[in-house]
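re the bet — no i am not wrong, look at it urself. input seq straight from the record:
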Amino acid sequence: MSGRPPRDERAQLALLDAMVFFAISMVICGVMVSYAVPGGSIDDGSFGSARADNLLAVYLGASLGDGVALGVAGFEFTGDERLGEVLFLLSALVLDGVPLEGFEPLLSHCSSVLSALSEPWSPFLRVISDDGEGGVTIISMGCEPGDGHDSESASQNLGEYDGSSLTATLFLSPALLVESDAV
């Protein structure tokens, strides 16, 4: 007996050493990355307006979708249009006197995209036209939050049309609170 472990045991020990080294390396890398991320996320369990603002930005920047080809009221939508652009176009048409009833399939699609993005929250989106003398709601979709609900909101300017500033405002409420009011 030479005192050496058999060849099979040496291979297992080398594999165990490699796995331990890999696990320690992953822990060290994880700690380094968590310190290196600027403004690292601290999740305190609250749903702040920064998240609502990010959700609104994502929604307005999202496209209608590849599978969506809507021909509504003389307009052809291919699916490449951004939702923010679509809301701006619809708002401009309403300001020009065109009724929204012809655009119900398009608004329904926009509303379903908003609902899918904001789960588990209940969204309410409002586009307001403000000409300096007060705001007028042009488009609204979703379930409006009631008084006393713990809701968050965010706004983003869509642009100007005919001297009026168009602003999209998103309200997010906990879905269970909104559903319990409907009962």
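see?? Residues 7-36 form the longest helix (30 residues). told u. also The chain is about 45% helix and 25% strand. so pay up
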